[in-house]
Design goal:
The complex is a heterodimer of chains A (257) and B (1050). With 257 residues, chain A is mainly α. Chain A is 74% helix and 0% strand. Chain A has one domain. Chain A contains eleven helices and no strands. Chain B has 44 helices and 19 strands. Chain B has a six-stranded mixed β-sheet, sandwiched between helices. Classes of the chains: A mainly alpha (257), B alpha/beta (1050). At the A-B interface, loops of A face helix 20 of B.
Chain lengths: 257, 1050
């Protein structure tokens, strides 16, 4: 029974090979906002399923090493795939998948529901924001594929800043909550897992580097574009700001404890 | 494959490379920055055609954008009548292609003045009248499959040219990025080889030449090995660089008929480096080129070997075509796939399709690919039509409802014609704007210029006369100097008509101080007038140690903690108190001693005596250093004997060796060292004798240079007590472009040596006696005094005052006062435009203090405006411009046609100073219209490369033009880009005759590289403007100038 729950949960809280279903679900959502909502809601549903059914603790006791290995494999696989894509929407999905799969590292470790759910949320929120930005970019340029016409830094400065910060948030850059969440997870893991986790971080660094390179640099040579409105920028900035503040709060608590 | 190249083949390749490099302008090292026309190699073409050709070669644009011209138009700086005239002429050329109900003039005028976008009709693949018609009426369009296939072939043939670089075509079809990787590797190789002392570790084997040295290093280069590049086989294919080039071109199966074009494209890809190597390989007396030879054949060979290796790597890993023929086969076999690849990898694809196309291309099997490709083409066609419809409707809306109705009422065929006319207009629009802007400036000058009085008043002897450079920065100084007192000024090329090769005291290499188009025959050597102790001063030695530490690669690991603080003192001093720091720093340095110039030609005996003296000194030094024998133990005869042995006049053993009991072996080693290290050697002696023969000027030469210079500027009488020869230079800190602010007429060098040479010659009694015979009477109390104008601070400093006759000292105070007053007035005029407060215009002392600070402020990216905003060159008497505020925008060359019956002097002016002015003007022009390709981008990202140029970031092509900080202000052009407007005061027939004698100048004027106005003094000073190959009368009228128009708009 737990195995079935585990499989269903693997499709909602992404986890190879069922992460494929998670991604299909996201793609099939109609519009950027729906995709953003889905990337937040689906993992939470998966978690609830695991937690409420008790599978979380039992699976953690039965096969913790295999689950952790699979989780790290999923994170590495999707980080690598994200490095190879230039489509912002796909990038957001892959990075979301890569980060969310790390939630499985905590299996059997965290007794409180809230901690695990917040951990998942720390990866979902930047992915959701990036999906929203991808939608806006598609509306402005016809697609969310980067690097075709040079960098957007000059023509879409506001949107570019928001996308850059979100990309940094998606890759667990310090001050954002997922960075502290990751530290917390690292602390609770055996030392032997560290090289793989560091590999994930390395891949994220590479991925975000490529993303920013395609997004910002190069002389733009496309059609003239209208940037994001000031109000929209404030709103996006506010969301990111709150997210960063939560990160600092989380970090503070973690350090104090 | 062994192709066995014959000597003929090799020569053919070298010739091809030579011809292919012709369009690439030479790039002088930045130590002597030469303002040059970036399109110099295309000057044989008319300006408009050259700009178009350069667009293909260098990918640069030749005109400002439409919206920038519109801003000038709104500011009243474009002659609207001229613009309309060019528009009408264009329409006449087009004929009645469209029905009369479409008023094309109205459409095009609206496009000119209302449309803000860069291009109304952008380049498209599929757009035609039918597509546009459908888009305008919101209708669908049935795919025309037959036409589509034909069009697809056309597109592919155009975009994947058979004679295009193979790697570039592979990049476009496979997204391999070989081009930029190749550039990176090549730039790295060039930096290693061409370094001129910046790197602490030198590349090995450089004396063998670029290709040979690189070849040896490349075979052991770990970086290449790690990249998987197999160079060995390629390098073993041929020994010579031209052989390698031919071998690779054949491997790539480039048709031989296309080699020339192929080579040109290869060389123009990094045209900064190619231009530098081109300059270097042909420069005379260029130390680094003599030591480490290299030419474009080497450069091309290295490029082609690396390119081939990268291509082979891509073939191995990605299975892409390996040569030109395979590429064509690949394209013809699957044109749809080739098109989609092109779209994706060149970034032209519709963003919505990019991911899908990328996914499909990545798959080995592609079911349904053709269908997707056709859908994409349909989408692209629709998108192009809709975008064009949007652009046109936007313009029509701005024009009025009638225009919209006209647009919607056109048939597909009419729309086709309409688009063609718009395309043709947009292609030539920039040139029309440019000419209209120039027309404004031409009218403005003609209206402002003074008409000299026919009868000259009795000449009063001025207190002082000053010969200043024609440089635009001399204009305000001249104006202010004349305004404050009894001064008369003349404009002359800053080398004062005396081209010299100058060997400065303390420097090891010669610099050519004359326009870059000349090669000086005479060498001038600066020697100290006082004897110096050999020992290095303590501070100098310490500084030497610190510099050594700074450049060492190990320093960061071992010395930061120990000596880092010492560097920080300078850093803080330069930043917080630049002037104080500069004064302190100068106090610690030994001052340059008083020097004299070796000016007179040496007789063979004198030359021989000098050579012997130098060789003896070297032998004495060698004895101390090599044998530790002090001078007091050596007699003159010993030294003489050793010299004779070294020169192989006699054989050893020497008396000294016997006396000191050195073995024969030791003596032989010492003699060899004398020959190798100290250059006491027979062949070297004859070379040095030849060099000594270049020193100085004969008396005839001195008289010729002085008389020609004085007659050139119309100065043959009424000499005052002081005749100042004011050379100019700039003084800035932390500025790789410093020499760009120095004297262009001195080849980017400082003008003082030429001024000193001229003054020394002109003060000689023998020269004056001969000049009197030529009708130039210089009074005995006239003294030619060299001076230097620091264009950053506007200070004028007098030189060689120790030679000044005692009777002149009485007037020195007045002279200095006058000069410093002019300095302050000029600074007050300039400083507000350099970021100073507007109040500085009323406070000359504060303005001068700010200008002085600019010279030592190392954070200053724009210490002065230099030659920016230059627009005019006026060749004529000072009366034409006396009292006129030309805002530092005019090159002023004094000239009096009445002293030039044969027109030879005018020919000299046109052939040299005018060409220098043209180069300066076009360097600025192109640096403004395309700051990235012809300019050098922002200074902020510049790094000095090898001490001879700058690059953007740590690795790039050499940036050859001017930085944005020099030509832009607040992101807008500060330099108004128009071609140089040359006004010559001379009778029309006379000037035409002079121009006719100069083939190059005729081509320049005829091709429109400069605009010419002739002011005919024998025809009531009527002005004639050269346009479209003929002179047209330009009436003088009192039209309001741009300033007034601006005020009216406000």
């Amino acid at each position: 029974m737990h195995i079935i729950i585990w499989i269903i949960a693997g499709a909602l809280l992404p986890w190879f090979p069922f992460s494929w279903i998670f991604n299909r679900l996201l793609v099939s959502a109609p519009g950027a906002w729906a995709r953003a909502l889905a990337v937040i809601v689906l993992p939470q549903l998966g978690l609830l399923l695991l937690l409420k059914s008790g599978a979380w603790l039992i699976l953690g006791q039965e096969m913790p090493q295999a689950l952790r290995a699979l989780a790290l494999f999923t994170a590495i696989l999707y980080a690598y795939r994200a490095a190879g894509t230039r489509d912002v929407q796909i990038w957001a999905r892959f990075m979301g998948t890569s980060g969310l799969s790390l939630t499985w590292l905590l299996i059997g470790l965290l007794p409180g529901h809230w901690g695990v759910q917040l951990f998942a949320l720390a990866w979902s929120i930047p992915a959701a924001l990036m999906l929203v930005w991808a939608g806006i970019l598609t509306r402005k340029t016809g697609g969310s594929y980067l690097g075709l016409t040079g960098g957007f830094a000059r023509v879409l400065p506001r949107l570019s800043v928001l996308m850059s910060l979100t990309a940094l948030a998606a890759t667990a850059t310090p001050v954002f909550p997922n960075f502290f969440a990751l530290l917390e997870a690292m602390e609770s893991l055996p030392l032997i897992w560290m090289p793989l986790l560091l590999l994930v971080l390395l891949l994220w660094g590479w991925t975000v580097g490529r993303f920013l390179q395609d997004l910002l640099f190069g002389i733009y040579h496309g059609e003239s574009l209208h940037d994001l409105s000031v109000g929209g920028t404030w709103l996006g900035g506010l969301a990111l700001g709150i997210f960063a503040l939560v990160g600092l709060f989380w970090g503070g608590i973690w350090i104090i404890n | 494959m062994d192709y066995q190249l014959t000597l003929g083949d090799r020569l053919k390749v070298r010739t091809m490379i030579y011809v292919a490099s012709e369009p690439i302008p030479r790039f002088w090292p930045m130590r002597t920055f030469i303002h040059h026309n970036p399109l110099f190699g295309l000057e044989h073409l008319p300006f408009e055609d050259a700009v178009e050709e350069a667009g293909k070669l260098f990918h640069g644009r030749g005109y400002l954008s439409r919206s920038e011209y519109q801003e000038y138009w709104q500011a009243g700086k474009v002659d609207e009548a001229a613009l309309r005239k060019y528009l009408q002429a264009f329409l006449v050329k087009q004929g009645g292609a469209l029905p009369p109900e479409v008023p094309m003039e109205h459409w095009l005028w609206s496009l000119l003045t209302l449309c803000k976008s860069e291009q109304l009709v952008p380049k498209t693949d599929w757009l035609n009248g039918a597509v546009l018609h459908a888009a305008l009426h919101g209708q669908g369009l049935d795919p025309d499959t037959a036409n589509q296939k034909e069009r697809l072939q056309e597109i592919l043939a155009h975009k994947i040219a058979l004679d295009g670089p193979v790697y570039a075509n592979v990049d476009r079809l496979f997204g391999t990025d070989i081009g930029s990787t190749l550039d990176d590797l090549l730039v790295k190789s060039c930096l290693d080889f061409f370094d001129e002392g910046q790197s602490a570790w030198q590349s090995p084997g450089r004396k063998q030449g670029f290709f040979t040295a690189w070849k040896e290093v490349a075979q052991h280069n770990v970086r290449f090995f790690l990249r998987g590049l197999h160079l060995r086989q390629l390098l073993e294919s041929e020994q010579t660089p031209e052989g390698v080039v031919a071998h690779i071109l054949r491997e790539l199966q480039v048709p031989e008929a296309s080699w020339q074009k192929y080579i040109t494209r290869q060389l123009t890809r990094l045209h900064g480096w190619a231009g530098f190597i081109r300059y270097r390989s042909t420069a005379r007396h260029y130390y680094w080129a003599e030591q480490y030879p290299a030419d474009l054949t080497d450069f091309l060979a290295v490029r082609m070997v690396l390119g081939m290796a990268l291509l082979q790597e891509a073939v191995r890993h990605q299975g892409c075509p390996a040569n030109a023929e395979e590429i064509q086969n690949f394209v013809h076999a699957d044109p749809l796939s080739a098109y989609l690849r092109l779209e994706l990898y060149t970034g032209a694809i519709l963003p919505a399709w990019a991911q899908q196309v990328e996914d499909m291309l990545a798959r080995r099997k592609r079911p349904g690919f053709d269908r997707v490709a056709e859908q994409y083409i349909a989408a692209k066609t629709r998108w192009e039509g809709e975008r064009q419809a949007r652009n046109l409707l936007r313009l029509a809306k701005a024009m009025g409802a009638e225009a919209e109705a006209q647009l919607l009422g056109m048939s597909p065929e009419q729309l086709d014609q309409f688009l063609n006319i718009l395309r043709a207009w947009e292609k030539g629009e920039g040139f029309c704007w440019l000419r209209s802007m120039e027309s404004h400036y031409i009218k403005s000058l003609v209206n402002r210029i003074n008409i000299p009085h026919q009868q000259e008043a009795v000449e009063k002897r001025p207190f002082a006369q000053a010969l200043m450079c024609i440089d635009v920065r001399s204009e305000p100084m001249r104006r202010h100097l004349e305004a404050i007192g009894d001064y008369q000024t003349f404009g002359i090329g800053g080398f004062f008509g005396v081209p010299i090769s100058f060997l400065e005291y303390g420097r090891g290499t010669e610099v050519h101080l004359c326009p870059a188009i000349q090669t000086p025959k005479n060498l001038v050597v600066e020697i100290p007038a006082e004897l110096e102790l050999e020992e290095e001063p303590l501070y100098g030695a310490l500084e030497h140690v610190l510099h050594e530490l700074k450049s060492s690669v190990l320093s960061p690991f071992v010395a930061v903690e120990a000596v880092g603080l010492i560097f920080s003192l300078g850093l803080i001093g330069k930043t917080v108190a630049p002037l104080t720091y500069h004064h302190l720093h100068n106090k610690l340095h030994a001052e340059k001693p008083v020097t004299r110039l070796l000016l007179d030609k040496l007789s063979p005996d004198q030359a021989d005596s000098i050579l012997r003296a130098v060789q003896r000194a070297m032998i004495v030094r060698a004895l101390i250093k090599e044998w530790n024998v002090p001078r007091d133990q050596v007699t003159d005869d010993d030294v003489k004997e050793l010299r004779e042995i070294a020169l192989e006049h006699v054989s050893g053993p020497s008396a000294l060796a016997q006396r000191m009991q050195f073995s024969a072996q030791q003596e032989a080693e010492f003699i060899q060292k004398l020959r190798d290290t100290y250059r006491v050697e027979r062949h070297e002696s004859s070379l040095q004798m030849e060099r000594l023969g270049r020193i100085g000027f004969s008396l005839d030469e001195q008289v010729r240079y002085i008389s020609q210079a004085l007659l050139l500027i119309g100065m043959n009488r009424n000499f005052s007590r002081f005749v100042l020869l004011v050379g100019h230079e700039s003084e800035t800190e932390n500025n790789p472009y410093e020499s760009a602010l120095d004297c262009g007429a001195c080849g980017g060098g400082k003008g003082l040596p030429n001024a000193r040479v001229f003054a020394a010659m002109a003060n000689k009694p023998e020269v004056r006696r001969r000049l009197r015979d030529k009708g130039i009477v210089i009074p005995d109390d006239t003294w030619f005094l060299p001076a230097v104008h620091n264009t950053t601070s506007d200070a004028v400093e007098l030189f060689d005052l120790d030679l000044l006759p005692a009777r002149h000292l009485l007037y020195l105070e007045r002279l200095r006062n006058g000069l410093s007053a002019a300095t302050r007035r000029s600074a007050a005029e300039r400083m507000p435009s350099l970021g100073g407060s507007e109040k500085l215009a009323q406070d000359p002392y504060a303005a001068a203090a700010m200008a002085l600070r600019q010279t030592h402020d190392w954070s200053q990216v724009r210490p002065e405006w230099g030659l920016t905003r230059n627009v005019y060159a006026i060749v004529g008497r000072r009366e034409l411009t006396a009292g006129l505020d030309l805002e530092s925008r005019a090159f002023l060359h004094s000239y009096d046609y009445r002293l030039d019956p044969k027109g030879r002097l005018l020919e000299t002016i046109l052939a040299s100073p005018m060409v220098v002015g043209e180069w300066i003007n076009l360097e600025h022009y192109f640096s403004v219209v395309d700051t990235q390709h012809y300019g050098s981008g922002s200074k902020v990202y510049h790094n000095v490369a090898g001490r001879f140029a700058v690059m953007t970031g740590n690795q790039s092509d050499l940036r050859t033009g001017l930085p944005t900080q020099t030509v832009l202000k607040d992101g807008k052009p500060y330099h108004e880009p128009v071609r140089l407007i040359v006004l010559v005061e001379a009778p029309v027939a006379f000037a035409q005759r002079s121009v006719g004698n100069l083939v190059k100048i005729k081509a320049l004027l005829g091709g429109g590289w400069v605009r010419v106005i002739l002011l005919d003094p024998e025809n009531e000073y009527r002005a004639y403007v050269l346009e479209d190959g003929a002179f047209h009368l330009q009436e003088r009228c009192a039209t309001p100038d741009s300033q007034t128009i601006l005020e009216e708009i406000a």
